[in-house]
């Protein structure tokens, strides 16, 4: 008899986006002429940089000739891309990362989900609340969740509330935790940590022999000086942190798929005898066994992000989204709403007015303004009383939506 992974039966269906779709569909059916603007999308809309397209066209042609054809590539990624990452994303910021600490892959979602393969089941996980659901659900699938509570939280996962009251800065855990997921700039709140605030976490992890899983998918949106682009800008972080980066939000690769994970050789975990072991060879072993590399064509596209033309185009696209975020921020602030994020992030996190719940305010915006947002409660209990607006729409639609408000 085949037994299934029981944990899958315990994980609730992802209710958030299906519930949004259901409510939007119902409204559209009742009001077919409504001009609905979507400010809830978590996907980019601007096309890929021309530099990337040109590089990928060239790579396609190479694949069509016997002399330049490439089959299986290195599981860790091609040197041409790993070298660019080391030079532009790290050395340029004074961070020393070597090529063999960089693992190119097909998504930060997959990597943040898969990293648990090399970590013991017994680890106590800590996440911020609200949270990117991937961190929680993948741990629940593996059996690290414990029991699901009525509020939708797992009793074996430690949740760190991030709200206006604490400036969206998580407090250090009151009990010992082993693995800490941090995502900055944050999805969904759009807020960041300063170097000093992030250092508190690096120091905690050092002292407690814990591991930080740092998701920097929105790094390219950082505009303020004191906000670290990489956790390795903090002294000692290479011993306690793994960093995830992605070309998805940076360069529009959400459908093209390319990302990378940095596992420094100095980054340690402990075996059952308490002996220190480097995680780098473990992740290498994991990738070599379960992953056969990101396509050559795609890696050539990602490499072009670092060309002069590519960097200029990426900068323009990010500026376009950040301009939208500013439009949203300014319009909502002028209306007296309390808003957060949107400065180093494509996300604006807004407090719902006069004590209405996330879903009540979602319904109000849908029905009276024909604007679709994302209810904060869908990201965790501390997201209740907030909604998320994204800057990924067109400027025209963003302006129109804000005019309606
Ligand atoms: C969009 C996003 C990613 C990127 O995921 P990919 O799989 O690389 O497209 C990672 N983390 C967070 C928090 C995100 O919102």
From TrEMBL:
Coiled-coil annotation: which residues? Answer: none
Residue numbers binding substrate: 15, 42, 109, 132, 187, 292, 388
Per its UniProt entry, which superkingdom is the organism in? Bacteria
One of the Pfam families matching this protein, by short name:
Aminotran_1_2
Residues with the modification N6-(pyridoxal phosphate)lysine, per the entry, are 249
Q: What class of enzyme is it?
A: transferase
Catalytic activity of the protein: (2S,6S)-2,6-diaminopimelate + 2-oxoglutarate = (S)-2,3,4,5-tetrahydrodipicolinate + L-glutamate + H2O + H(+)
Q: Which GO terms describe its biological process?
A: lysine biosynthetic process via diaminopimelate, diaminopimelate-aminotransferase pathway
Which residues does the record give as pyridoxal 5'-phosphate binding sites? 72, 108-109, 132, 187, 218, 246-248, 257, 292
Q: In which pathway does it act?
A: Amino-acid biosynthesis; L-lysine biosynthesis via DAP pathway; LL-2,6-diaminopimelate from (S)-tetrahydrodipicolinate (aminotransferase route): step 1/1
Q: Which InterPro entries match?
A: Aminotransferase_I/II_large, DapL/ALD1, PyrdxlP-dep_Trfase, PyrdxlP-dep_Trfase_major, PyrdxlP-dep_Trfase_small
SUPFAM superfamilies listed in its UniProt record: PLP-dependent transferases (SSF53383)
Care to name a GO molecular-function term for this sequence?
pyridoxal phosphate binding
Q: Which cofactor does it need?
A: pyridoxal 5'-phosphate
Enzyme Commission no: 2.6.1.83
Domain Aminotransferase class I/classII large, residue spans: 35-405
Which UniProt keywords are listed?
Aminotransferase, Pyridoxal phosphate, Transferase
Q: How does it assemble?
A: Homodimer.
Similarity field: Belongs to the class-I pyridoxal-phosphate-dependent aminotransferase family. LL-diaminopimelate aminotransferase subfamily.
Q: Which HAMAP family match?
A: DapL_aminotrans_1
Tell me the function of this protein. Involved in the synthesis of meso-diaminopimelate (m-DAP or DL-DAP), required for both lysine and peptidoglycan biosynthesis. Catalyzes the direct conversion of tetrahydrodipicolinate to LL-diaminopimelate.
- Please report the name of this protein according to its UniProt entry: LL-diaminopimelate aminotransferase
Q: Which organism is it from?
A: Candidatus Enterocola intestinipullorum
